[in-house]
Amino acid sequence: MAEPTLDALLQEDRTFAPPPAFAANALVHDRSLHDDADADWQAFWARQARELITWERPFTKVLEWDLPFAKWFEDGQLNVSVNCLDRHVEAGRGSRVAFHFEGEPGDTRTITYAELLDEVQRFAAALKQLGVRRGDRVAIYLPMIPEAAVAMLACTRVGAAHSVVFGGFSSDSLRDRIIDASAKVVITADAGWRRGAASLLKPNVDAAVAECPTISHVVVVNRCNTAPVMQAGRDVWYHDLLAQHPKGTTCAPEAMNAEDLLFVLYTSGTTGKPKGIMHTTGGYLTQVAFTHRYVFDLHPATDVFWCSADIGWVTGHSYVVYGPLANGATSVMYEGTPDTPAHDRWWAMIEKYRVSIFYTAPTAIRACMKWGIQEPAKHDLSSLRLLGSVGEPINPEAWMWYQEHIGGGRCPIVDTWWQTETGAIMITPLPGLTTTKPGSATFPLPGIGAEVVDESGTALSVGGGYLTLTHPWPAMLRGIWGDPERYQATYWSTFPDRYFAGDGAKLDEDGYLWLLGRVDDVMLVSGHNISTTEVESALVDHPSVAEAAVVGAKDATTGQAVIAFVTLKAGMGAAAPSDDHGQALRAHVAKKIGAIARPKTIIFTDDLPKTRSGKIMRRLLRDVAEGRSLGDTTTLADPNVVAEIKRRAEVSPQED
Ligand code: WT7
């Protein structure tokens, strides 16, 4: 399918006005939110914080900004679990469903707000018993099961920060993250269900924790009955802990300062070491509650919300757990993959739970497109009234398919741009207010300052450049765990007085924003941020590899695919690299980082294209990988290398 170029799209007049039903019902049906925010963005956020959040001690200070360090609502105190649970139960909404959970095998669990509060208090009491205290860090390595939300909320109740590590990550990745944050306890499961099989987690934890002296206990949820080895004195079953803290157990919430650490979440950087992105309590909760309510036009008593993201990513933190629960919403939570047992699993679940708001990623939409329109057509999707997209630029074809075949032509689509670092949605249409264009994330939210600048940092009113944020926002990262200099250098040094998002962006004649993807060396594979350097380090870690260069190449299904150029050491198969050797290297990367980072293609080469100063020319490698013509190669130390690489690229087998 031929992709129209961005310029062609910008010429086209293809816009979608908000449907009338929306304009009539929506929370946002005029520009009053914008007017408020434009008049005084700090006062705007202070008002949201007062309206949406329950404070144990009200704040009097709104923002202290000492670039690049922000403090929001600094003298206020609150507890996140109280905001997500207690206050809804106290208001008489304890019997409202918080989660309709469905496991991949089809098992279900309906959890009300009252039940969730009960389980969170019992588990919070158990964490205290295991020695977890206010200010500690707890690692969470779980599948998408209700216990993941319980674990996160229990941490917030006792004032410990969580560090969720995606269940698809390897034991090495888990170990590095535990060590970096000095976590005390790991919460995991024996395994999780994935594509019809139990995908083991506990053995990875055992391997990781063997090298983590700070870990005193491992809590294990028995999800798949795989009978893991339990180490006496260290490992403890989740169900045994709950049995020791029976129903009705209370655990008093810690009154946390607004700027106390809520969680650390690791994201790839351009050097091998992942960055522990820090989010704090009051500002984060304010913006996730605000965005979940207004961007998704949430009517908490009647909507059924489904964000398909895993809690291992920030999307799962903000729009599976904290945003929906802060707003007292009903959510669907699903453990497995959309193709199990068949390709209509998601659509069957939307019909079954009468989902009204569905939020997913372009890579998933493209996979569904591949499976065909007959899959959604098997189901009654008439409960849907709003669709969302996040993770990468959504190509207009996928946007149109989503709107037509999932949204039945009647649902607005909110294409939401944000990052692990921003904590919450930043650029998006507002349903009922914004006229959308397929593929454009449209405009910054009220209270958010975003501008596209050129190389010199000058703001543009039309044309392409770099996306920057012009002033602090409540859910912004407060830094990188243990590395304030890297925080300053990565985000605040490229353009003076601006946050540099790392994305290219373009403004059209109507002022609409079009995101163009990462400009640095981070790849976005199926919506997951993977650093080229991290994959290179993993490859070079293999005894046979001399040198490696990794680039992301455009891929129809996953957005970008990981392509590795590898030079082998002499005597290590360099003379005749084999397919088996390539497979061994792919497996090595999967073990070191996780399957998501496994190169799709490995191209063996005798040398890599370098500048005279020795810097690998990624642009050229990307050109080769994407099959484009080579362009200017004159700055290369040895131009023949490129020709050779290109020849090899044409014959290297691809993984399917
Ligand atoms: C990067 C952040 C935020 C949750 C998912 C990923 C890309 C995200 C969009 C969008 C175009 C998008 C950007 C961003 N991105 N949403 N709607 N349109 N690009 O979080 O792993 O921190 O990645 O995802 O490149 O910088 P993340």
Please outline the major beta sheet: 8 strands, mixed
Overall body shape? globular
CATH architecture of the largest domain: 3-Layer(aba) Sandwich
- The top-level CATH class of the largest domain is Alpha Beta
What is the count of structural domains? 2
Name the helicity range: 25-40%
Proportion of beta-strand residues:
15-25%
Q: What is the tally of helical segments?
A: 21
Distance between the termini: 19 Å
User: What name goes with the CATH superfamily of the largest domain?
Assistant: ANL, N-terminal domain
Class computed from helices, strands and strand pairing: alpha/beta
**What's the Cα radius of gyration?**
24 Å
Q: Spatial order of the strands in the main sheet?
A: 12-11-8-6-7-14-15-23
Which kinds of small molecule does this entry bind, naming each only once? 5'-O-[(S)-butoxy(hydroxy)phosphoryl]adenosine
- The overall average pLDDT, rounded, is 91
Query: CATH fold name of the largest domain, please?
Result: Rossmann fold
Question: Can you walk through the features of this model?
Answer:
This protein is of the alpha/beta class and 656 residues long. The protein has 21 helices and 30 strands. The strands form 8 sheets. An 8-stranded mixed sheet has the order 12-11-8-6-7-14-15-23, with helices on both faces. A 7-stranded mixed sheet has the order 5-4-17-16-18-19-20, with helices on both faces. Strands 21-22-24-25 form a 4-stranded antiparallel sheet. Strand 4 and strand 5 (108-112) form a beta hairpin. The relative contact order is 0.10. The chain binds 5'-O-[(S)-butoxy(hydroxy)phosphoryl]adenosine. 5'-O-[(S)-butoxy(hydroxy)phosphoryl]adenosine is lined by residues 267, 314-315, 390-393, 415-420, 441, 501-503, 515, 517-518, 524, 527, 529. 5'-O-[(S)-butoxy(hydroxy)phosphoryl]adenosine binds next to helix 12, strand 24 and strand 25.
